[in-house]
Amino acid sequence: MFVLKNYIFTPSKIALASQPTVSRFFNRMDEDTLNQFLAITRVLRMRIYSIQMPQAVILDLDSTLLDAYGRQEGRAFNFHYQSNGYHPLVCYDGMTGDLIKIQLRDGTQYSCTEVVDFLQPVLDEYLHDYPEIPILLRGDSGFSTPDLVEAIRETLDCNLVFHGNVVSVNQMIGIMMGSIAIFGIIYYLVILLPEGEGRR
Predict the structure, then answer these.
(1) Which residues face 85 on adjacent strands?
(2) What φ, ψ does residue 196 adopt, rounded to 5°?
(3) Is 85 left (phi over 0), alpha (psi -120 to 50) or beta?
């Protein structure tokens, strides 16, 4: 049985599966089924890479909201999104947009919750199966936790570089001194400057 977009096809004939067949399929899913899906994606990735090996892989780490409107188990209010649903972890190939891994979590989870356990098997796969491919990791500031940083350093034997709104101490001192000077001038002009001198 193959899932293609929103249709489920059986190998013997191209036909839309009935609702009871789909329900039985989803009701039989368990941890083993999910691991089998991960194994399938790994085999597909190996086949694709055997045809065209990428120059590099950008593991794009993110979390998102999956809206839920009923009383499903794990559905909860997420304050960041101001909505009810699930808050899964997602890892894409940043170059192709291919989904590498996804893990469903309840809606109350913070972005970085369980991120090391989620990402470690992906890193291990790439280091074991494709040691020649450079790995880059991209994620927002919610993922820059000490546990993840340590796991990446141990696994990839690398130094991490954080981009974004990073300001050095010298830059911060310059910004503060400039701000103090500007506020001092404004204070002088508004409060201390006598009525007759320079005011109109």
Answers:
(1) 67, 76
(2) -85, -15
(3) left
